[in-house]
Amino acid sequence: MIRVGCCGWTYKDWIGPFYPENMRGQRGKWLEYYGEFFPTVEIDSTYYSVPGERTVAAWIAKGHRIGDFNFSLKMHRDVTHSKILQDAEEAARKAVEFENGVITPLAENNLLGSVLVQLSPRFKRHGPPVDDNIETLRVLLDALKVDEYDYVVEFRHRSWLDEEGKEYSEDLAEMLRERNVAVCIIDSPYFPRTKEATADHSYVRFHGRNFDIWWKKEKDVADHRINRYDYLYSGEELDRWVPKLKDMDSRSEKTRVYFNNHGKAKAAKNGFYLMDELGVPHKKKEIHIREQYTLESF
Fold first, then answer.
1. Theoretical Cys-Cys bridge with 121: which of 156, 159, 169, 215, CB 3.0 to 4.6 Å?
2. How many CA atoms lie within 13 A of 140 on its CB side?
3. What is the helix (H) or strand (E) element at residue 247, kind and residue range?
4. What is the pTM of this model?
5. What are the b/e assignments for 188-211, b being 16+ CB within 10 Å?
6. What is the average pLDDT score of the chain?
């Protein structure tokens, strides 16, 4: 089963292209409106701050009102970008706290999709914190309920790849297979599009293809893109993914696909297109992308 969604739903620049103008001051209703069109969402805000009980309870209440819906979410950065670079046991302890407080309540309410462990680009195969960080990952994953929840790891440094630099090293893949932890398949400027399957569930993230500004801190003032994720995939680009996703889904019990190219609701537009091409039923909606230009561009 393939579920397609977006990375987040609380973007102000979605007013007009996606959310109706009369919802501009009704942010509390955006999730349920979003849920009319997509069966899943990736919550990225959990990377920046750990949500409190009231926030998690609100997600649960809205998720139940939507119906057949689930939340995937990112592990907090204190685990993936801080502690894991220093001490595996401490990273594991913080991850368990996050699991108990955020993940388990969603799972107990049948609203949990996947848990994304997006690793720091500074977290390399060989140290720090140890010579071979497969051991660091093993400590982290073994502390978590990987046998109950769908965990996914997104690697962001090429040292985790094999000698050809196209797939993950076999010892890493085997360690993940033993724990039924998936590797995140990425469409982005910073990592190759691997095909490795290490779990009975699959996870794909579309980050856009803004190769020219991905690593730049500043853009030309005439550039109308709001950030590196402001990219609209063409039909041709997504069409190439259709057979890959269908093949992935034939080998997985669950396949979750998320668009992170959120600028001006481009993620939603691409999500609708991909669902149509995959034959995934969904409520129809027209999205008119309006580019945002600076004064200098005129």
1. 156
2. 30
3. helix 241-250
4. 0.93
5. bbebeebebbbbebbbbbbbbbbe
6. 92
Per-residue pLDDT, averaged over 158-182, amounts to: 95
Whether 220 has a pLDDT exceeding 80, the answer reads: no
d(CA 57, CA 264): 29
- Residue 27, phi then psi, degrees to nearest 5: -60, -30
Question: In this structure, what token pair is assigned to residue 5?
Answer: 């969604």
**Using N-to-C axis directions, what is the helix angle for 88-98 and 134-142, rounded to 10°?**
30
Tokens matching residue 216: 């730049």
Q: Kindly list the structural domains of the chain, giving each domain's residue range(s) and its CATH number in brackets, ordered by start.
A: 2-297 (3.20.20.410)
Give the integer Cα–Cα distance in Å for 167 and 286: 38
End-to-end CA distance of the chain: 47
Q: Tell me the two tokens of residue 296.
A: 């200098």
**Residue 130 to residue 134: CA distance in whole angstroms:** 9
- The CA distance from 6 to 113, in Å, is 13
Q: What contacts 130, CB < 8 A, 6 or more positions away?
A: 88, 136
Residue 9: which of 28, 31, 36 has the closest Cα?
Answer: 31
Question: Which amino acid is it at 74?
Answer: K
Helix (H) or strand (E) holding 45: helix 45-48
ω before 129 within 30° of 0 (cis)?
yes
Query: Average pLDDT, stretch 115-137?
Result: 95
Strand spans (E) along 16-163:
40-43, 70-74, 112-118, 150-154
Closest CA to 81 of 95, 71, 69: 95
User: What length does the chain have?
Assistant: 298
Give the whole-angstrom CA distance, residue 33 versus residue 22. 12
Residue 181: both structure tokens together: 């932890």
Contact present, 207 and 261 (Cβ < 8 Å): yes
**Dihedral angle of Cα 53, 152, 177, 274, to the nearest 10 degrees:** 130
